[in-house]
Design brief:
The complex is a heterotrimer of chains A (306), B (70) and C (128). Chain A is mainly alpha-helical. Chain A is 49% helix and 4% strand. The radius of gyration of chain B is 23 Å and the shape is rod-shaped. The termini of chain B are far apart. The chains are: A mainly alpha (306), B mainly alpha (70), C mainly alpha (128). The interface between A and C is large, with 38 and 41 residues. Chain A: Residues 83-236 form the Cytochrome c domain. Chain A: It catalyses: a quinol + 2 Fe(III)-[cytochrome c](out) = a quinone + 2 Fe(II)-[cytochrome c](out) + 2 H(+)(out).
Amino acid sequence: MFSRLGSAFRQNARAYSTSAKAELSSNTKKAISSVVGITGLTLGYIVYQDSQTGKAMTAAEHGLQAPEYEWSHKGMFDSFDHASIRRGFQVYREVCSACHSLDRISWRNLVGVSHTASEAKAMAAEFEYDDEPDDQGNPRKRPGKLTDPIPGPYANEQAARAANGGALPPDLSLIIKARHGGCDYVFSLLTGYPEEPPAGVQLAPGANYNPYFPGGSIAMARVLFDDLVEYEDGTPASTSQEAKDVVTFLNWCSEPEHDERKKMGVKALLIVGSLYLLAVWTKKFKWTPIKHRKIVFNPPKPPKRR
Amino acid sequence: MSFYSTIFQTVFKRNSVYVGTIFGTAFVFQTVFDDAINGWWETRNKGKLWKDVKVKLAAGGDADDGDDDE
Amino acid sequence: MSLIRDFIEAMAPSHAYAEEAEEEEEAVEDVKEGDAEEEEEEDEDDDDDEDEDEAVDPLDALKEECQKTAECAKSVKEFQACTERVTKAEEDPEYANKDYKEDCVEEFFHLQQCVNKCAAPKLFSHLK
């Protein structure tokens, strides 16, 4: 049955190809070439017309370029300032955590970085987490443990949007890696709210002006103010100090491997560097006799003619 | 006996000794190298590392959490 | 360049950070404050302390300082001129129907860029 079908198909195909071949020599050829020509011309015209108008972004749409700050962890061999991370966590906990979650960081991650184990345990225990259901299947709660993630302020995205006028406060775990300009950008954003927007700027209701935010209109209002938190180590809590600390903390959240990575980098540079030198030396050692040999061709003396 | 022949006699002559020397040297070198880099890293970043911060906390903060875990 | 500088600094870790000096300064300030308060009143010690600390955010102070420099004077002038121009235009009853409404974002950006360039490298030496 299949063979019959196949042969029918083959016949059909042959008929089609022959008919096409027959007609190609006539008007079809002209029709095809004219269609191609018209399509080409139309496309060319569209492209040309499109090139006549430029749609560049304005400076406001790009956002103000954040300046470079002298972060204490900026250099190639510089670790995080852990005192700053500790203060930054305090700022996150007292200010940012009202709206922003920190999903990828667990309490245990803070241990040995900014807090002692007992401090972290105490902070975790302040929150309630879902426990296994009891024998009747009723849900239970238990106090937090070190292994629990730091809880966010909202149950889900919809709740977060509903509470913030439709705007979703982004999760801060990877925010430094997730924004162009990293630390500098977030620091500038936090400290860059002007007293009032520049004249002529129209803002939607509920929006705030921040020059560093692309477009300039941001849902988050200025949150850091002088003496908003009280640091336990007595550091004066100016706005810029709070911003610096919280950005250092968020940078640690984004790159918890940072210190270890830089230390490993030193080791790698030293080892690989010396191996490179060793390789150069070995090459020279092996090649010296070959490079310095002298090949002398002593042709046999031609027989004397007499 | 010259220096090279001493080395040859002690290290290179028997394969077991040779391999053992390589393994031993690698082990010792790793420890020494790691310690050296660690020491340098800690002097370079003194005051910023957690162990320094922790000491300051224990000294400056109240004594209610003077624990030594981690 | 910074890489090489890092290397040199790394090899010779004798680099003295300004921390110690700052601490000394703070100590001196504390002493002064303490003296002043003792002379005046001893009732609201803590409150006074906080108020004095809060008085200036180093970033704001630096920005203000930078706006007065010669480089940024031009940007300040242009921004002020634009603000005046736009405010005047906004007072026009026909303003809502205008096709083109100017804003001062560009002037503001130029000013901020100038101020940032001047203030950003200095800021972190004033912070802990």
